[in-house]
Amino acid sequence: MTKYRFKTAREFQRDDEYDYKHNVPKDWNTDGDMDEYMGQDIPDTYIDEIERGNDIKMDGWHFNNENIIENDRHTYKPTTQNAAPYILIRRKTTS
Predict the structure, then answer these.
(1) Which residue has the higher pLDDT, 89 or 26?
(2) Is residue 94 part of a domain?
(3) Which of 6, 21, 42, 43 has its CA 20 to 30 A from that of 60?
(4) What is the pTM of this model?
(5) Count of domains in the chain?
Protein backbone atom coordinates (compact mmCIF):
# COMPACT_ATOMS: atom_id res chain seq x y z
CA MET A 1 0.00 0.00 0.00
CA THR A 2 1.30 3.46 -0.85
CA LYS A 3 1.07 6.57 1.32
CA TYR A 4 -1.59 8.28 -0.81
CA ARG A 5 -4.54 7.25 -2.97
CA PHE A 6 -7.32 8.85 -4.96
CA LYS A 7 -10.69 9.25 -3.28
CA THR A 8 -13.40 6.70 -3.96
CA ALA A 9 -16.73 7.66 -5.54
CA ARG A 10 -18.35 7.71 -2.11
CA GLU A 11 -15.64 9.99 -0.73
CA PHE A 12 -16.11 12.41 -3.64
CA GLN A 13 -19.86 12.37 -2.98
CA ARG A 14 -19.37 12.88 0.77
CA ASP A 15 -17.12 15.89 0.09
CA ASP A 16 -19.60 17.40 -2.42
CA GLU A 17 -17.08 16.92 -5.24
CA TYR A 18 -19.23 14.71 -7.45
CA ASP A 19 -20.92 15.53 -10.75
CA TYR A 20 -24.17 13.54 -10.56
CA LYS A 21 -25.19 14.57 -14.08
CA HIS A 22 -22.21 12.71 -15.60
CA ASN A 23 -21.71 10.26 -12.70
CA VAL A 24 -18.04 11.20 -12.20
CA PRO A 25 -16.05 13.36 -9.77
CA LYS A 26 -16.16 17.09 -10.55
CA ASP A 27 -13.46 18.19 -13.02
CA TRP A 28 -12.84 14.61 -14.18
CA ASN A 29 -13.36 13.37 -17.73
CA THR A 30 -17.13 13.10 -18.25
CA ASP A 31 -16.78 10.03 -20.52
CA GLY A 32 -15.62 7.92 -17.55
CA ASP A 33 -12.09 7.49 -18.90
CA MET A 34 -10.65 8.44 -15.50
CA ASP A 35 -12.94 6.21 -13.41
CA GLU A 36 -10.25 3.55 -13.04
CA TYR A 37 -8.28 5.92 -10.80
CA MET A 38 -10.97 6.21 -8.10
CA GLY A 39 -9.68 4.58 -4.92
CA GLN A 40 -6.39 3.57 -6.53
CA ASP A 41 -3.01 3.94 -4.84
CA ILE A 42 -0.74 6.70 -6.10
CA PRO A 43 2.91 5.77 -6.62
CA ASP A 44 5.15 7.09 -3.85
CA THR A 45 7.18 9.04 -6.44
CA TYR A 46 4.44 11.71 -6.17
CA ILE A 47 4.72 12.18 -2.37
CA ASP A 48 6.76 15.40 -2.54
CA GLU A 49 4.33 17.08 -4.96
CA ILE A 50 1.29 15.96 -2.97
CA GLU A 51 2.72 17.11 0.35
CA ARG A 52 3.55 20.54 -1.13
CA GLY A 53 -0.15 20.83 -1.98
CA ASN A 54 0.48 20.67 -5.72
CA ASP A 55 -1.71 19.00 -8.29
CA ILE A 56 -0.19 16.00 -10.06
CA LYS A 57 -0.06 14.75 -13.63
CA MET A 58 -0.22 11.00 -14.01
CA ASP A 59 -0.64 8.91 -17.17
CA GLY A 60 -1.51 12.05 -19.13
CA TRP A 61 -4.27 13.14 -16.70
CA HIS A 62 -4.28 16.15 -14.39
CA PHE A 63 -5.49 15.52 -10.82
CA ASN A 64 -6.30 18.24 -8.28
CA ASN A 65 -4.67 17.82 -4.89
CA GLU A 66 -8.18 17.69 -3.40
CA ASN A 67 -8.73 14.37 -5.24
CA ILE A 68 -6.05 12.73 -3.11
CA ILE A 69 -6.15 11.45 0.46
CA GLU A 70 -3.69 9.67 2.70
CA ASN A 71 -4.05 5.91 2.96
CA ASP A 72 -4.74 4.65 6.43
CA ARG A 73 -4.36 1.19 7.92
CA HIS A 74 -7.55 -0.05 6.25
CA THR A 75 -7.59 -2.11 3.09
CA TYR A 76 -9.90 -1.11 0.23
CA LYS A 77 -11.10 -3.79 -2.15
CA PRO A 78 -12.93 -3.06 -5.42
CA THR A 79 -16.38 -4.59 -5.79
CA THR A 80 -16.91 -3.92 -9.49
CA GLN A 81 -14.86 -3.94 -12.66
CA ASN A 82 -14.62 -0.13 -12.86
CA ALA A 83 -13.37 0.01 -9.24
CA ALA A 84 -15.63 2.93 -8.34
CA PRO A 85 -17.47 1.60 -5.24
CA TYR A 86 -15.42 0.14 -2.40
CA ILE A 87 -16.06 -1.87 0.72
CA LEU A 88 -14.05 -1.07 3.82
CA ILE A 89 -12.42 -4.20 5.23
CA ARG A 90 -10.89 -3.76 8.66
CA ARG A 91 -7.88 -5.78 9.68
CA LYS A 92 -8.38 -7.93 12.73
CA THR A 93 -6.51 -6.54 15.71
CA THR A 94 -5.50 -8.26 18.89
CA SER A 95 -5.73 -6.64 22.29
Answers:
(1) 26
(2) no
(3) 21
(4) 0.73
(5) 1
